[in-house]
């Protein structure tokens, strides 16, 4: 399947600004992007990065600086279906998790993300449109219904956890064993156990 | 499969104390417990609640007020295997998600939870012991290795999201359609969209 990987090359991961400076956020976002592209490649899918600015990576890049929803809908119009849309910050993603997305039946298959996001989609219906504004998992259900598309939902932790907030970084340390984890370890991040959920600590750094 | 459902009937969900008072936390925790018991029943499993104090619910209750790890290990010793251990705050759980836990191959199968927790386990190995202190998903991997148990991991958002912190409540509003969601709606909680993840708001309440 053709996969679109939206990426913000200009201001990536702004919600990590309390723990990573601008350059660090650029580096960490690119490490996650590389991991996502690797997983897509290993799952046998052909990725195109849909980026807000030029970015060096191991896939063709289409630059489109319009809002995410507009850029993705136009990219869907331009391509033969099926097409998947896989977010660039899914640092936990594996080929198996992607297979479960692609193998779930439905004209539109979505992977819900934390806080109502839509972390991945497989689109096989020509009239379906994305809407990433607001609670997109709700809007995508409605949009599928509006065009009579059968909706599938894939139940996956690895697709559901996107890395947006500082509290998400522990998930990378615990469940990624590739570039994104190596990047955090090199930057001095360590796991810290608590009575409740574990978090990260950065003894010598900004966080 | 026999299922153990640990439940803290005395001080449930203390990390929700910023948004729910004591009585409310008792009510909400019992609504989630009822949903988990329903899902186990629908999946054809026989649940026993392992509670720190007596609790009224739709399953047999064993009262054990010792720490969670001790109580669960003793309960495992007492029972013919396989036994599953399913946390009482998995408000997103469905019979399908439980099936994926029970159908994954392994002497020990675990469902990772946010922040390194272990939200569900299926245990088919007599020497395996649980350890819920600290980063349990790590400790359970090590404990399985130490007794030469084949480890399976189930990739499930519905098993991975436990409801512990105020930010988790949005997941109940979005992905539960049973008692726990009804409880939150009755208590005045509503979803609120943002640029990032959606959260809950409670216009007329404590939250």
UniProtKB/TrEMBL annotation, chains A, B:
<keyword id="KW-0548">Nucleotidyltransferase</keyword>
<comment type="pathway">
    <text>Cofactor biosynthesis; coenzyme F420 biosynthesis.</text>
</comment>
<keyword id="KW-0342">GTP-binding</keyword>
<comment type="similarity">
    <text>Belongs to the CofC family.</text>
</comment>
<dbReference type="GO" id="GO:0052645">
    <property type="term" value="P:F420-0 metabolic process"/>
</dbReference>
<comment type="function">
    <text>Guanylyltransferase that catalyzes the activation of (2S)-2-phospholactate (2-PL) as (2S)-lactyl-2-diphospho-5'-guanosine, via the condensation of 2-PL with GTP. It is involved in the biosynthesis of coenzyme F420, a hydride carrier cofactor.</text>
</comment>
<protein>
    <recommendedName>
        <fullName>2-phospho-L-lactate guanylyltransferase</fullName>
        <ecNumber>2.7.7.68</ecNumber>
    </recommendedName>
</protein>
<dbReference type="InterPro" id="IPR002835">
    <property type="entry name" value="CofC"/>
</dbReference>
<dbReference type="GO" id="GO:0005525">
    <property type="term" value="F:GTP binding"/>
</dbReference>
<dbReference type="InterPro" id="IPR029044">
    <property type="entry name" value="Nucleotide-diphossugar_trans"/>
</dbReference>
<keyword id="KW-0547">Nucleotide-binding</keyword>
<comment type="subunit">
    <text>Homodimer.</text>
</comment>
<dbReference type="GO" id="GO:0043814">
    <property type="term" value="F:phospholactate guanylyltransferase activity"/>
</dbReference>
<keyword id="KW-0808">Transferase</keyword>
<dbReference type="Pfam" id="PF01983">
    <property type="entry name" value="CofC"/>
</dbReference>
């Amino acid at each position: 399947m053709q996969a679109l990987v939206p990426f913000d090359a200009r201001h990536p991961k702004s919600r990590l600004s309390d723990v990573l400076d601008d350059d660090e956020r650029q580096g960490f976002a690119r490490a996650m992007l590389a991991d996502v592209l690797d997983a897509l490649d290993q799952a046998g899918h052909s990725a195109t990065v849909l980026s807000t600015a030029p970015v060096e990576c191991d896939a063709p890049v289409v630059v489109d600086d319009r809002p995410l929803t507009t850029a993705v809908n136009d990219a869907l119009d331009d391509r033969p279906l099926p097409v998947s849309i896989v977010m660039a910050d899914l640092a936990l993603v594996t080929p198996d998790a992607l297979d479960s997305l692609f193998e779930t039946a439905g004209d539109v298959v979505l992977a819900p993300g934390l806080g109502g996001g839509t972390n991945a989609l497989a689109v096989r219906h020509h009239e379906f449109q994305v809407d990433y504004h607001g609670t997109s998992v709700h809007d995508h259900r409605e949009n599928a219904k509006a065009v009579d598309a059968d909706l599938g939902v894939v139940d996956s932790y690895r697709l559901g956890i996107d890395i947006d907030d500082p509290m998400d970084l522990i998930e990378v340390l615990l469940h990624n064993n590739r570039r994104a984890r190596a990047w955090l370890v090199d930057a001095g991040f360590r796991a810290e156990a608590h009575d409740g959920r574990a978090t990260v600590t950065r003894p010598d750094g900004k966080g």
